[in-house]
Amino acid sequence: MPGFTQLEAAAIRGGVAIALSNKNPNDPSGNYTVFAPTNDAFARLGLVNPQDLNVLQKPFLTNVLLYHVSSGSLNQTQVMSAGNIPS
User: Fold this and answer.
1) Coil, strand or helix: which one is 54?
2) Burial 3-22 (b: 16+ CB within 10 A, else e)
3) What is the distance between the alpha carbons of residues 80 and 40, in angstroms, rounded to a whole number?
4) pTM of this prediction?
5) Which DSSP state fits 68?
6) Is residue 85 pLDDT above 70, yes or no?
7) Is 31 helix (H, G, I), strand (E, B) or coil?
8) What residues contact 51, with CB distance under 8 A and at least 6 apart?
């Protein structure tokens, strides 16, 4: 998906791509909500190319990615009105 290639590379390197591509066993609809940083967000951290992700320790990358995942489908209204969303 254009604009999210760094996220895709990070998900692969962090080992979460396979889990997120499968149905969520904890949600009746099988969905996840991913709060997805764009390539621009990664670039602000100096992570412009997929190989730049190699400077991050894999466990750190995995934890950061999973912190941006919520079980089930959340729409904008739910996100904006929630004070806290469990990951």
Assistant:
1) helix
2) ebebbebbbebbebeeeeee
3) 23
4) 0.80
5) T
6) no
7) coil
8) none
